[in-house]
């Protein structure tokens, strides 16, 4: 027995939803006034694999192609997906169904060196980081530059995140192996972490994101969580003996972490619970193998978009 949810579509049909605890065959019995409906019980086969529901892109420079895409962010208010197409020095703008809307081109994307993108939840703007020019650029949804800043402490800024609640822009930098926290005008407020292998320290950072409560989530070969003020809270995933590396990390509105990982020739996505770090599921993309997955972003309807760097495309999955 497992919990089910029934939704009346008000057209004579119903949606029945349930979440299997493991793969296998399930029997679903449906009754109305203690009388089974026709064809009840229904037999459902649940696969152990999780494959993409949609894919987009191929290698190249045409309008529907990518050249070394690395990062993705979702504007849930506007219904837009932004993908950093690094090798083509542009940001591709898509619908949540991965239909092309257009491209953003900006000086902040020049030099095939943009490696991170983030979206403000309330201001209708996005930010990108360029590791070569060591610059963070704020853009509106049409791609017009609103502001830009750099800092003398920048060495190799590779990713960024926006905390709308606190008005912070977080920049992960692999030079000093830390996360710099700025206000939206580019004033440095504080620093999170330093180089090292201890808890609260980093080696080669790959990504940074922000949780629904302002939690700062940073990934290198492991995932660590800090408070909005930069205090260490927990290690969600320790490196162990896998010697793997995370490519991207995101936290959805319900407090679930989704993170892409490469380890011993395997490429997959993990889903954790932020509150206690429990691993909930793994996406293996069995029929459409990932190759060097990098940035990830979560939608409001429990789907995620993964940048498949090695295959020069993006893939969309249902993760929960």
UniProtKB/TrEMBL annotation:
One of its GO terms (molecular function) is zinc ion binding. Filamin repeats lie at residues 1-46. NHL repeats lie at residues 53-97, 143-185, 189-229. It comes from the Eukaryota. Signal peptide: none annotated. PROSITE patterns: FILAMIN_REPEAT, NHL. One of its GO terms (biological process) is proteasome-mediated ubiquitin-dependent protein catabolic process. Keywords: Repeat. InterPro entries: 6-blade_b-propeller_TolB-like (IPR011042), Filamin/ABP280_repeat-like (IPR017868), Ig-like_fold (IPR013783), Ig_E-set (IPR014756), NHL_repeat (IPR001258), TRIM-NHL_E3_ligases (IPR050952). This is SMP-30/Gluconolactonase/LRE-like region domain-containing protein.
